Amino acid sequence: MEIPYTVKPRPDTGLYNAKLGIWLFLASEVMLFGALFSSYVLLRVGAEPGTWSMGLMDLYVGAGNTMVLIASSMFVVLAWAELKQGNLAGYKKWKWATIACAVLFLFVKWGYEWPSKFKHYDVWLNNPTVLHEKFEEGYHEVASHGEHADDEHEHGDAAHGGDVEEHVEKIYTTRFFKEESKDSQLAFDDAWRNGTLALSGHINAYEEAQIDVLITGWKADAGVSEADAEKALAKQGAEDAAGLRLNGGLLSEKKTDYDTAKRAEYALGQAGFTVALSVT
């Protein structure tokens, strides 16, 4: 049985099967991304002030990468047009331009945008004393040597607390609001006063956070033998695997980075252990 209009267009519509199939595919893409964008808009509009990360994306980098995508679409159409005209050299020229756009796009993604997303995590504090102590420890030097350094000269250490708070507020405002407003000031003041400000890889990651991996228990009924469980602990660097399985405790006195800690949590969970991670 021969399928009609696989190459020649229908006389009534002017379309052949492949073109109609592409149109249907594009329609499905519009519905898929329409749903995703609508969900994003609803989540963003409905978010409470000070909880939506506004400053994690670079507007200019995103706009530049969008232009690269548009240019690549134009180049591939030009390549197709040259091929239709039998101009193989012109086709190769525009096809290589398309490939160059693809390489540039992936370079920006892998080299700039994606690495920080793979390590993105938040630590939400709920104790004002701990929050103020950590921020004072982390930002004391950079804040006191910034634009308020003169105040430090005049007022001594009394100026430091204010310097740190103002410095952190600028970072917080950039991330969650992009620009200062009454809403940003109220949200920051409330979070600072109650100790519920977010510490994240984008706020305090001048240095990668260090993680303690704590074994809190082992499930004997998890379907894993004692020997295999202890072997899993040893593989993660435990010195006393038997003692850890029986009594729990820190996997290692040496702290580890976030990625390694999460991998250990997953591997030990498969071996029947319950694991708690804490940021230091």
Automatic annotation (TrEMBL):
<feature type="transmembrane region" description="Helical">
    <location>
        <begin position="20"/>
        <end position="43"/>
    </location>
</feature>
<dbReference type="GO" id="GO:0019646">
    <property type="term" value="P:aerobic electron transport chain"/>
</dbReference>
<dbReference type="InterPro" id="IPR035973">
    <property type="entry name" value="Cyt_c_oxidase_su3-like_sf"/>
</dbReference>
<dbReference type="GO" id="GO:0004129">
    <property type="term" value="F:cytochrome-c oxidase activity"/>
</dbReference>
<keyword id="KW-0472">Membrane</keyword>
<dbReference type="InterPro" id="IPR024791">
    <property type="entry name" value="Cyt_c/ubiquinol_Oxase_su3"/>
</dbReference>
<feature type="transmembrane region" description="Helical">
    <location>
        <begin position="93"/>
        <end position="112"/>
    </location>
</feature>
<keyword id="KW-1133">Transmembrane helix</keyword>
<feature type="region of interest" description="Disordered">
    <location>
        <begin position="142"/>
        <end position="162"/>
    </location>
</feature>
<protein>
    <recommendedName>
        <fullName>Heme-copper oxidase subunit III family profile domain-containing protein</fullName>
    </recommendedName>
</protein>
<dbReference type="GO" id="GO:0016020">
    <property type="term" value="C:membrane"/>
</dbReference>
<keyword id="KW-0812">Transmembrane</keyword>
<feature type="transmembrane region" description="Helical">
    <location>
        <begin position="55"/>
        <end position="81"/>
    </location>
</feature>
<dbReference type="InterPro" id="IPR013833">
    <property type="entry name" value="Cyt_c_oxidase_su3_a-hlx"/>
</dbReference>
